[in-house]
Design goal:
alpha+beta; 467 residues; 15 strands; 16 helices; Alkaline Phosphatase, subunit A; four-stranded antiparallel beta sheet; globular; single chain
């Protein structure tokens, strides 16, 4: 952090992976690129992506993602020269493999017909029922999979020692790819790590003894039943979940060192513009919410954002203005010497260092748009949670509004970061203008209509504990 510019007011465009990543790669909000659950979960070919913009400048590009959503299936890696993504099972069974299970040149994937038929047979047959049940139960009983991971690792990799990394192949694949590029070849690399995504396993380096391990792993972590009201952690369970989360954040520090080492070994570190951020936040009980999706609460939208310029030099300077993940797009293009992309909302991050953002920052949440999630909710609870939401930030104020504009709240984020005091009844003219703009954003999102999620998307959502 000491060599970086820090953006303490950074906001994710959405509280989950697909729309947030689409915004990173296009510089557009979800209602501008139409990647959200009220339109489509695949990025349209007509919208240019960041690696496509960089390619004419001579850049070679690489995407390495632990999250299988960031894959060719959703159009999020279009334009990358090489692409690798994690298997769904890697969130549960963690082994120290150094090669990606899915790797391809180019970002367009052709699925063989035989594979389509095999997947259809698995989904529709008894094996699919078994796998769906196992996926759901793994979030209820994470100790079982943690123990299984440890046993499997000891059997297959006895020489490695203790590890808990998800997709540890990312650092190895990055180092290999950088080593194969000529020294004067400009490169763009995107890395996605999911160690802080549930289910959480205790860090073997920080957890000592069977008793401490059992206390941390016996806590259920199933998102669907939590938001559906079938389960809520006790105060003690919430405390331990936070301990697990902090362990995972500390473990990411170790992984970041490995990424920096790969850049140093390839001779590129001093010439690298590097960003560290997250595609969304995580809630651990605030406002009755567990993990992410569905809401625009602060724990879900506020993300870390550091920008280290080539050679360092950020000196830990903290930016003044609100930032959004859409701002990475013009910032990277500006640094590469590309023409201004003429985006409607995104701005280069350097412009926010010593001045306020000229326009508000916005974010959205989809609400409950899939029937298989809605079925877990009682009618009273569904009425509270099934509300597409818009958040608008300007100055110290945050307006939270249903997308259709029926309900509005106002918070002073600086004085009330927990969002406990609704100031809407005392709002002034400036706030009314901010609310009016949020209402327009909500209208744009709702104009896109409601989509039907296909079977493959449903299976991936289920495997990651969303349903």
């Amino acid at each position: 952090m000491a060599e970086s510019f820090v953006f303490p007011r950074a906001v994710a465009p959405a509280p989950w992976t697909i729309p947030s990543h689409a915004s990173v790669f296009t510089g557009l909000y979800p209602w501008e690129n139409h990647v959200h659950a009220y339109r489509s979960l695949s990025l349209a070919d007509s919208i240019p992506t960041l690696p496509e913009r960089l390619a004419p400048l001579g850049y070679r590009s690489l995407s390495l993602s632990a999250n299988p959503f960031v894959s060719p299936r959703f159009g999020l890696v279009r334009g990358f020269d090489e692409v690798a993504w994690g298997g769904w099972w890697e969130a549960f069974l963690r082994t120290p493999r150094d090669r990606a299970p899915n790797f391809q040149h180019g970002s367009t994937v052709e699925t063989p017909l035989s594979q389509d038929r095999t997947m259809e047979w698995i989904r529709d047959g008894p094996l699919g029922d078994v796998l769906r049940s196992a996926s759901q139960q793994s979030f209820r009983f994470p100790f079982a999979l943690d123990a299984g991971s440890r046993i499997l690792q000891r059997m297959q990799f006895p020489e490695v020692g203790r590890t808990i990394s998800q997709t540890p192949w990312i650092e190895h694949e990055l180092g290999r790819w950088l080593g194969e590029r000529p020294a004067d070849q400009p490169v763009f690399s995107f890395l996605n790590l999911t160690d802080t995504h549930e289910p959480y396993y205790p860090d073997p380096e920080l957890t000592h003894g069977l008793r401490e391990w059992w206390k941390l792993t016996r806590i259920r972590q199933d998102h669907a039943n939590a938001v559906g009201g079938q389960w809520a952690p006790t105060d003690e369970e919430s405390r331990r979940l936070r301990e697990l989360y902090r362990q995972m954040v500390r473990h990411l520090d170790v992984r970041l060192k490995g990424i920096v080492r790969a850049l140093q070994d390839s001779g590129r570190w001093e010439n690298t513009l590097m960003f560290v951020t997250a595609d969304h936040g995580q809630s651990l009980g605030e406002h009755g919410m567990m993990f992410h999706l569905l809401r625009v609460d602060e724990p879900l939208l506020r993300v870390p954002l550091w920008m280290r310029p080539p050679g360092g030099g950020g000196n830990g300077q903290r930016a003044r203005g609100w930032a959004s993940l859409i701002d990475l797009f013009p910032t990277i293009l500006q640094a590469a010497g590309a023409p201004s992309p003429g985006l409607p909302s995104a701005v280069p991050l350097r412009s926010l260092l010593d001045q306020d953002r000229p326009e508000p920052v916005f974010a959205m949440a989809d609400g409950i748009v899939w029937d298989h999630i809605r079925s877990r909710f009682g009618k009273d609870r569904e009425a509270v949670w099934d509300r597409p939401m818009i958040a608008a930030y300007q100055g110290s104020r945050k307006v939270v509004m249903t997308a259709a504009g029926e309900e509005t709240q106002l918070f002073d984020i600086d004085a009330d970061p927990r969002e406990e005091r609704d100031l809407w009844p005392t709002s002034d003219v400036a706030v009314l203008d901010l609310a009016s703009r949020a209402r327009k954003v909500g209208g744009l999102m709702l104009q896109d209509g409601t989509q039907t999620v296909d079977r493959e998307v449903e299976e991936r959502l289920r495997s990651w504990g969303y349903i």
